[in-house]
Amino acid sequence: MKGKEEYIAVVAKDVESQFEALRVALGAVLEEHKSDLYILNHELDFDYMKKICDDCPEEFEDNLEFLTDMRGHLYSNVKENEKYNFTTLSMDEIMKKLKEYNVVIPY
Known about the structure:
There is one protein chain. By secondary structure, this protein is an alpha/beta fold. It has one domain. It has helices at residues 18-30, 46-52, 56-69, 91-98, and strands spanning 7-12, 34-39, 74-76, 87-88, 103-106. A five-stranded parallel beta sheet has the order 4-3-2-1-5. Helix 1 (18-30) links the parallel strand 1 and strand 2. Helix 1 (18-30) runs parallel beside helix 3 (56-69).
């Protein structure tokens, strides 16, 4: 039996955590929670992901699309991430928005 639906924000603060943060956000939606991903202070780095595994950049892009298909949202304070369908917010807007969540998972 599943528990109460939570509203979860997963926040990646650096390049090294972006891949795992997305995986956690996806896991949350698969458990029937509402989950959003925040990428802070950096543009998505696909070269770094390539160091993790050869297919990781493509998997990451597929997973971003899957998260949005599952009604998750993508937010960033870096305008360049708009090309990956992120909504750009200022840090003040992000701080206010994070107060809406039941759970915030920082990476």
